[in-house]
Every structure is written in C-alpha cells, then in structure tokens.
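Note to self: keep these together.
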Amino acid sequence: MDGASSAPFPDGPESATVRGMERLSEITLLAPATPDAHDFLHALRSLLAEVTYADTAAGAADHRLTLTPPRPAGALPVTAFALADVPTPRIAFDTGHGVDVWVGETPDPRAAAPRIGMDELTRRLAGHVRRVDHLGVSVPASGAASGGWDELVAALASASTMYRYPEGEEWPFVLPSTEAEFAAGISDFVIGREPRFELVHDRWLSQSQVQLALWTDLTRAELERMFPEPEGLTLPGLGDIFRTVPVRPPWPGLGIRFDLSYRVGEGPNVWETGEWLVTEGGRIS
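Structure:
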C-alpha cells in the first residue's frame, strides 16, 4: 500500500452497541475542507437540485449537504456530506463509530481511471437526477483483519436496520427505518426509504472507494451517449441496471464513482422498495 493510511475499522469489541440502547441517526461523509472540496460539494448540491429531500443545514450551506429519508415519516438515519477539520475523508456514524479510508499516492490498478471532473458530470446531468438510492463505501479486505470488519458490521447492525445482500457478497445495507421498525424489523415496502448506506468488503481494491448511486430519468441509451467509454462504463452483471462514471476526486488517492440508474418503468420494483433486501437477504442481528 502506497501513501499514508489509517485503520478503516473501529478498535476493539467495546465499540459495539446493544440494540435498543443506541440508534443510528446520521451517517456522514466527512472530508478535509480544502478549496477543491468546497467546489466538489457545491457541484454535488447542484447535481441534486431536483431531489426534493436534499437540503443544506441552516447557516452551513457552504460546507454541508443533508439528505433526509422522505418515507416512512421519521425514518433514520439521514445521510450527510460535510467538510471539516479532518486529515483524510472518513465515514462517521453518530453512534461513535467510523470508517477511515485508505488513501494512497498510487491509483488502484483495477479501478477505472476517472476521465471527467465533478463540474462536468453536473453540467451533463443537470435536471436529470430524481432520487438518491444509496451512499456506499468500499474498503479493501486487506486493510484490516476480518475481525475488524465483523465488529463494524455487528456494531452497525445493533444500532440500525441492516440487511444482508441476498446473493452472498459482503455488501450489507443499512435501510432507513422508524423507531418501531428498528425494534421489530421492516415489513412496509415503500419508495422513499432512502438514501440507504452500503458497506462493501472488497478483496480486489487496494484503496477505498466511495460510491453514490442515483436514480435518473434517462434511458440506458441516453446515458451511454452522455457518458461514452472510457468516461462511462458498465460493471460486470450490472449493465442492465446502471452506468458507472468515475470522477476525479478532490482528495488524491480516494476513488469516487457515480452509479447512474436508468429510468424506471411501470410501478416500483422490489429493489426500490427494499423488499428484496429484507425478504431475501434478511436482517443482520
């Protein structure tokens, strides 16, 4: 691993919580408050201008963006992007846990090199982003012992409604939920239970990657024309669902990609409502 890094997992078993004692209410991507980072956040705010539940905190419009789940009423956690006095980007959970990203000077050889910046992505997509499906962070499996991963998943699962990815990969998702659902589990499947949070244990990556999955009103053909290769690409097995566009990050050594979902046809599907994750994946306890 090249460059500076910090352990991506919490230290020690004492970081876990007991369900019912503490509930996860906010997940925040904290990042160093550099001029480039301010520009990135400004562009992100413009990109999400049509998302009705995207809002900036009062008096902090220049350094924070907050996304509040619209349904069901009172669902938590909210998702936020904030600039702060931190040395490297970090996913922070208000339960006291966090994921420090691996930042290296050498690009990951398996990751597609970003060809466009955030401003250009925003310019092309302006007016076409309708919702935010999820924020995700991929952490290299080589970054820490498996026990650290297990402790982090256990801690988040005890403080939220976290569900397994049904096809066996280590891609657990936190779904926003009400206090009653936190206690008993989710059984109501509605559009609007978003943004979710995905935690990925990736054995192929050599540095961390942040992903932001967005719902657009564009077809596959339109997105392929808007972001032709090598600017845009399709991930194996997922080309029928979304187009991926890596962007140049304001923090060197961290991968950032946008997964742009195609326009949805008739009626909600089991992914949108969370039903597939809940019924096929099952809650992590």
